[in-house]
């Protein structure tokens, strides 16, 4: 949190000064109120009129100071909140696949929406109040010290006692705020499951069951919010009750000073200052607890959970000129052995087809070769460099993926191919044509700038796959990973897509259960996973044996 606020150090100092402006206004208002009450003791109309003019001037000055204070604060708040959003988004995008997959995607959406809204609505509101009330407390106690040192010492001692009482509420406040965040995440996941499976729910007439489940989730969330609000409000009430006790004692003490000849203006001003001390310290401490709970939310959505100490420092670039070599590879997933002491090589520019029964580990092997999994035993090297020493982002710049289920953004065909990178439009168009999208683009009114519906609902399966192929072409990738890229296509489209994939000038590592006669044989090698081992075959020999 400290680094967030000090990122713009000079503007943060400016922000604190802006929060102190209302402290000056509050002190002047207290003084004027004391003078108005003290005018009763003076008893002259001339004095009363003079004080009324002073009051009017202070009121106008206060309005001006409020506007100035707000303008001084608002730009810092806006830019800092934008930083929080970017940090939260950056944490998600830059987390490893292993770390990312520990949570549901909907929980990340909850982090980006609900948690940031909690932080936005709570943090700066509490920070302003903490600075303002802390400023009023310090200024009030200082002025009291000049007017009556004994009274000032008594107020300070009481405030210390109140501080330790409030401190006892801190851990519970933070815990409740974190629980609200967790309930928000669970609610987001429940709603996403309901909406994603709405068609199935309707077809099976089980909407009521899920409606009941959703209502239970909503009720739990609102109950947890209510518990947090009640607890924080109870803190405030307890502190106010204790503060009221001090105020009664202050009134008794100050009434004795009035009897000893102190002016009514001075006594009233001291009462106002005593209010400034106690009421602000009783309210600032619960606010400080809420501020800490907001800081916990900030850490949750922006700080990485990965323990970097267990990893080798990844500083090397991915450079693939000759071969990727796998030696004595062991890998298990959820307690099940997938690969055992297996070795093979991937040569640059060659086309490899992965074969094996369902669950044999074909998709797992792609994830190992693309650095998605790194908790394996053995070695994976590229031109002699250990995978564990290579920056993941460096490899990602050199590879592309084609999956059975292609994800498309609700955006133009152009942006779905370019993936928001600044390619020349001619290059995008060329990639689209090579991928066989020319017929599609001719039908669209806006051509390559045609908007797609959510996840490309207005495209056929073959058109969606061709967009993913265009992505690989425009990226000039060195390695293309394909995981059942044609399984959902008809025979004719499947053949065309497979032929396009094999014509690309890159290394291809593909999984496919389908055999397209005259095309599938064009793979250079077949890697068959059987009994936790990987056996390599020349493609022609493999398919000849299968045919026999």
Question: What this model shows, in words?
Answer:
The protein contains 18 helices and 10 strands. With 548 residues, it is an alpha/beta fold. The chain has 2 domains: 2-192 and 222-305, ABC transporter type 1, transmembrane domain (ABC transporter transmembrane region fold, Up-down Bundle), CATH 1.20.1560; 323-547, P-loop containing nucleotide triphosphate hydrolases (Rossmann fold). A 6-stranded mixed beta sheet has the order 6-7-8-3-9-10. Its main location: membrane.
Order of helices and strands: HHHHHHHHHHEEEHEEHEHHHHEHEEEH
| Architecture per CATH nomenclature, i.e. the level-2 architecture of the largest domain | Up-down Bundle
Q: In total, how many beta strands?
A: 10
Structural class: alpha/beta
Please outline the major beta sheet.
6 strands, mixed
Radius of gyration: 34 Å
- Quaternary organization: single chain
Low-confidence stretches: none
Q: Overall pLDDT, averaged?
A: 79
- What share of residues are in beta strands? 5-15%
Helical content class: 55-70%
Apparent shape: elongated
Distance, first to last CA: 68 Å
Question: What is the fold named in CATH at topology level of the largest domain?
Answer: ABC transporter transmembrane region fold
The CATH homologous superfamily of the largest domain is called: ABC transporter type 1, transmembrane domain
Number of domains: 2
């Amino acid at each position: 949190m400290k680094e967030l606020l000090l990122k713009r150090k000079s503007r943060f100092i400016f922000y604190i000064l802006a929060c102190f402006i209302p402290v000056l206004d509050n002190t002047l208002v207290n003084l004027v109120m004391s003078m108005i009450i003290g005018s009763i003791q003076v008893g002259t109309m001339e004095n009363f009129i003079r004080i009324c003019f002073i009051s009017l001037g202070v009121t106008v000055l206060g309005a001006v100071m409020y506007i100035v204070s707000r303008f001084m604060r608002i730009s810092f708040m806006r830019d800092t909140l934008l930083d929080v959003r970017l940090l939260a988004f950056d944490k998600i995008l830059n987390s490893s696949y292993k770390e990312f997959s520990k949570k549901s995607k909907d929980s990340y959406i909850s982090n980006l929406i609900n948690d940031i809204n909690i932080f936005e609505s709570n943090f700066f509101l509490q920070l302003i109040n903490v600075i303002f009330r802390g400023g009023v407390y310090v200024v009030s106690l200082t002025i009291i010290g000049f007017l009556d040192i004994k009274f000032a010492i008594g107020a300070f001692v009481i405030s210390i006692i109140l501080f330790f009482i409030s401190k006892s509420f801190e851990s519970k406040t933070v815990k409740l705020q974190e629980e609200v965040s967790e309930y928000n995440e669970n609610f987001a996941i429940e709603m996403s499951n309901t909406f994603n499976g709405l068609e199935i729910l309707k077809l099976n007439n089980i909407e009521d069951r899920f409606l009941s489940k959703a209502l239970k989730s909503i009720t739990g969330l609102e109950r947890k919010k209510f518990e947090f609000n009640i607890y924080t409000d109870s803190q405030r009430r307890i502190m106010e009750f204790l503060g009221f006790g001090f105020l009664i004692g202050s009134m008794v003490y100050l009434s004795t000073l009035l009897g000893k000849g102190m002016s009514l203006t001075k006594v009233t001003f001291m009462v106002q200052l005593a209010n400034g001390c106690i009421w602000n310290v009783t309210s600032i401490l619960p606010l400080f607890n809420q501020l800490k709970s907001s800081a916990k939310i900030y850490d949750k959505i922006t700080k990485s959970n990965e323990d970097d100490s267990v990893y080798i420092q990844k500083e090397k670039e991915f450079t693939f000129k000759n071969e990727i070599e796998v030696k004595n590879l062991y890998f298990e997933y959820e307690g099940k052995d997938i690969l055992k002491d297996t070795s093979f090589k991937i040569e640059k520019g060659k086309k490899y087809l992965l074969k094996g029964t369902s669950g044999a580990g074909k998709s797992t092997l792609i994830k190992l070769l693309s650095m998605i999994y790194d908790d394996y035993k053995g070695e994976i090297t590229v031109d002699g460099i250990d995978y564990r020493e290579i920056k993941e982002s460096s490899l990602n710049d050199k590879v592309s993926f084609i999956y059975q289920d292609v994800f498309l953004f609700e955006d133009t065909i152009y942006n779905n191919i370019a993936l928001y990178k600044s390619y020349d439009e001619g290059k995008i168009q060329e990639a689209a044509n090579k991928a066989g999208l020319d017929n599609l683009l001719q039908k669209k009114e806006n051509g390559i700038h045609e908007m797609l519906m959510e996840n490309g609902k207005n495209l056929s399966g073959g058109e969606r796959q061709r967009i993913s192929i265009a992505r690989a072409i425009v990226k000039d990738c060195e390695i293309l990973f394909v995981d059942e890229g044609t399984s959902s296509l008809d025979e004719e489209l499947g053949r065309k897509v497979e032929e396009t994939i094999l014509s690309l000038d890159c290394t291809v590592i593909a999984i496919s259960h389908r055999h397209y006669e005259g095309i599938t044989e064009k793979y250079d090698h077949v890697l068959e996973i059987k009994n936790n081992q990987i056996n390599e075959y020349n493609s022609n020999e493999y398919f000849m044996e299968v045919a026999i």
